[in-house]
C-alpha cells in the first residue's frame, strides 16, 4: 500500500464507521503517516514495494533474526515485516489504527500488544526486547509455532558511517541536546532518533 493509498484508506475507514470525515482529523492522520514513513525511509531497511517471495529470497541465506520492512501486499494493511526464523523466512503484517502501529495478531492477543507512533519505534522495541531476553525465549509473540526474533536489519544498501555512528550514539544516550557537539551535528542526530 502506498502512502496515498494509506491516507485514502484513513479517509474511507472514517466514512465507513459513520463518522463524517473532518479535514483536520484526516490531515493529522496524514501527517502521522508521513512522519512515520520519513523515519522508515531513513532507516535503510525499508524496501518499499518488495513482494513477499522477493523478501523471502533475500532472507533465505541470512542469519536467524535478520529482518526488513516492506509494503504489504494485503489491501487492509500498510506494511509487513519479513524476518528469517528457524523455519525460514516469514512475514508479519503491521497494522495501523487510531494513529498507532502494532503487529497484527489474533484478536485475543491484540489488546496486549504494544502500540507505537512509528514503525521504526515498533521495530526498535522488539529488537531491544530480543537483545535483553535469552535467545531461547527471544520474543513473546508467536506466529503459530514460529518464534520471532528481530536482531539484525537487512539494509537496502550499506549505510553510511555517519548513520551507523548516529545509531550508536542513540544507543548510548537519549540526551542528544546535552552533548558537547555543534548544532548542525545535533540536528543530524535528531533527524533519526532510533537505535536500529
Keywords summarizing the entry:
about 200 residues; alpha+beta; single chain; 7 strands; 2 domains; globular; SHC Adaptor Protein; Elongin C, Chain C, domain 1
Tell me about this structure:
This protein is of the alpha+beta class. It has 2 domains: 3-153, SH2 domain (SHC Adaptor Protein, 2-Layer Sandwich); 161-191, SOCS box (Elongin C, Chain C, domain 1, Orthogonal Bundle). It is 40% helix and 17% strand. The protein has helices at residues 3-16, 23-43, 52-59, 119-132, 161-172, 183-191; strands at residues 66-71, 79-85, 88-97, 100-103, 142-143, 146-147, 152-153. The strands form 2 sheets. A 5-stranded mixed β-sheet has the order 4-3-2-1-7. α1 runs antiparallel to α2 (23-43). The two termini are 24 Å apart. Mean pLDDT is 82; it is low at 10-18 and 135-146.
Radius of gyration: 18 Å
Mean pLDDT: 82
End-to-end separation: 24 Å
Query: What level of helicity do the residues show?
Result: 25-40%
Number of domains: 2
- The name of the CATH superfamily of the largest domain reads SH2 domain
Runs in which pLDDT lies below 50 for 5 or more consecutive residues are: 10-18, 135-146
Q: Judging by the overall fold, what is the CATH architecture of the largest domain?
A: 2-Layer Sandwich
Provide the structure class. Answer: alpha+beta
Largest sheet: 5 strands, mixed
Strand tally: 7
Estimate the global geometry from the Cα principal axes: globular
- What is the level 1 CATH name of the largest domain? Alpha Beta
In spatial order, strands of the major sheet run 4-3-2-1-7
The total of helices stands at 6
Amino acid at each position: 500500500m502506498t502512502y496515498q493509498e494509506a491516507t485514502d484508506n484513513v479517509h474511507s475507514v472514517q466514512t465507513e464507521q459513520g463518522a463524517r470525515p473532518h479535514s483536520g482529523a484526516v490531515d493529522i492522520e496524514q501527517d502521522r503517516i508521513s512522519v512515520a514513513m520519513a523515519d522508515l525511509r531513513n532507516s535503510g531497511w525499508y524496501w518499499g514495494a518488495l513482494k513477499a517471495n522477493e523478501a523471502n529470497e533475500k532472507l533465505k541465506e541470512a542469519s536467524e533474526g535478520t529482518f526488513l520492512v516492506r509494503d504489504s501486499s494485503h489491501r487492509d494493511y500498510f506494511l509487513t515485516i519479513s524476518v528469517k526464523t528457524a523455519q525460514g523466512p516469514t512475514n508479519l503484517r503491521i497494522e495501523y489504527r487510531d494513529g498507532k502501529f502494532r503487529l497484527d495478531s489474533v484478536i485475543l492477543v491484540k489488546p496486549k500488544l504494544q502500540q507505537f507512533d512509528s514503525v521504526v519505534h515498533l521495530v526498535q522495541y522488539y529488537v531491544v526486547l530480543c537483545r535483553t531476553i535469552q535467545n531461547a525465549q527471544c520474543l513473546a509473540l508467536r506466529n503459530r509455532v514460529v518464534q520471532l526474533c528481530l536482531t539484525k536489519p537487512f539494509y537496502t544498501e550499506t549505510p553510511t558511517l555517519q548513520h551507523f555512528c548516529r545509531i550508536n550514539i542513540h544507543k548510548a544516550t537519549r540526551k542528544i541536546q546535552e552533548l558537547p557537539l555543534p548544532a548542525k551535528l545535533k540536528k543530524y542526530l535528531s533527524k533519526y532518533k532510533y537505535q536500529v
